[in-house]
């Protein structure tokens, strides 16, 4: 996977990654996602994300407002990394897992 990213420009892989991550919006050097989930799903999602984020040594911002969970990945003052894009993909996996019956 590293060869894929190193052989292409950063802009290309970020654009490609965002097309594969529906619902994620790029804001400068960060990406964000808002999910309409209930409190128990939020708790389950947060736990799953914590495990993955710890393994990747990353710290996404996760907040809860009304019936929405907001997630932000990236630092804003540094370019997005492969790990941050991977974390967003794993968050999508966790979201599907906690919302499927």
UniProtKB/TrEMBL annotation:
<dbReference type="InterPro" id="IPR036428">
    <property type="entry name" value="PCD_sf"/>
</dbReference>
<comment type="similarity">
    <text>Belongs to the pterin-4-alpha-carbinolamine dehydratase family.</text>
</comment>
<protein>
    <recommendedName>
        <fullName>Putative pterin-4-alpha-carbinolamine dehydratase</fullName>
        <ecNumber>4.2.1.96</ecNumber>
    </recommendedName>
</protein>
<keyword id="KW-0456">Lyase</keyword>
<dbReference type="Pfam" id="PF01329">
    <property type="entry name" value="Pterin_4a"/>
</dbReference>
<dbReference type="GO" id="GO:0008124">
    <property type="term" value="F:4-alpha-hydroxytetrahydrobiopterin dehydratase activity"/>
</dbReference>
<dbReference type="InterPro" id="IPR001533">
    <property type="entry name" value="Pterin_deHydtase"/>
</dbReference>
């Amino acid at each position: 996977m590293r060869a894929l990213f190193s052989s292409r420009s950063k802009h290309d892989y970020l654009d490609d990654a965002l097309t594969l991550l529906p619902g994620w919006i790029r804001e400068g050097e960060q990406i964000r996602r808002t999910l309409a989930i209930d409190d128990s799903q939020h708790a389950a999602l947060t736990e799953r994300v914590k495990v993955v984020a710890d393994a990747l040594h990353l710290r996404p911002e996760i907040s809860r407002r009304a019936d929405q969970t907001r997630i932000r990945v990236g630092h804003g003052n540094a370019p997005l990394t492969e790990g941050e894009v991977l974390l967003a993909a794993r968050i999508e996996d966790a979201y599907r897992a906690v919302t499927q019956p």
